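Protein 1 of 2
SEQ + STRUCT:
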Amino acid sequence: ADFRATHRIGARRDHSGRHRQLPRIGHMTTTYLWLKALHIIGVVCWFAGLFYLPRLFVYHTMAHDEQSRNRFTTMEEKLYRLIMRPSMIVAVVFGLWMLVLAWDALADRIWLWLKLFGVVALLGYHHYCGRLIRDLAANEDSHSERFLRFFNEVPVVLLIALVILVVVKPF
């Protein structure tokens, strides 16, 4: 028997209370799996940057000589521009593409709306990091080292929440 059917994976109740399978993507299965793979690659690369960049901010604020500060500015700008921004675009584009393909099956899922809220929060965090890069490059350190150490943990919390929402689908 089909594992998916016997274990009700992807099933939900219709108005009569009976389980029904989410619509299969049919000929789009291979396409959808490629989209998912590319989305995951984008997310992994984006999070690598989201984890590392705030740590660079901490080191940048601890540096007192001009040469070190310039080196951190260069590292931060390259990480943001060459790795984080393209990875974010890949993650968002392929995530939205998958969402469009599966919208009818997912539109009423609470976990999806919570995930989308988390993604919007990540986008805000990402762009705030861009602002911090500009501020630090201009020697306008508006945040303490302690703040930046806590700021560094935000993507960890969001990642944990998003993975649980997507894998467990508790709502």
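Protein 2 of 2
SEQ + STRUCT:
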Amino acid sequence: RGLAIAAFFALTFAAGHLAQEVRDHQGDVLNAIRTNAVIFGQRRIFAASLALFTLAYALLFLLALQGTIPRSLAALVVLYPLHLRWSLKTLAEGLTYASIHRLQARYRALYAIIGLAMVAALYGAQSTAMTSAAEVATAARRSHRSNCSTSVQPRIFSRCAELTAIPRASK
């Protein structure tokens, strides 16, 4: 589970890194810094960045459908068309520093929403699981106590009392 969630974030960070290289292309060319965007071209690296973002959204959706992460997170895939629209607009604007900077601010906001939703969903699932476990334990104690109170053999009753006793806090 942890590895699958890490893969989602790895795709996201790799995509963001490539977008950063595209944004810094002009400065890197002027300073003879050989980045992916300088070597392979801005458009190709931007396309690779968008492809990685697309894979990240697809992985998020798949993980939710499989139940690896809470299923409610599958709804976050509705953010992808917005991300795609902004990316295509950035491409149409010529991949300028300003257009890529604006895109970065926008997709970072989307991923902040995704991250917060993941934390909320995972915390909620953990809280629910803890509540359920506590309810099961309470029901088991009640059931055991009712079974013990009907016991007629002193030896069994004594053992039941030991099992259901609530430990006192030490001073």
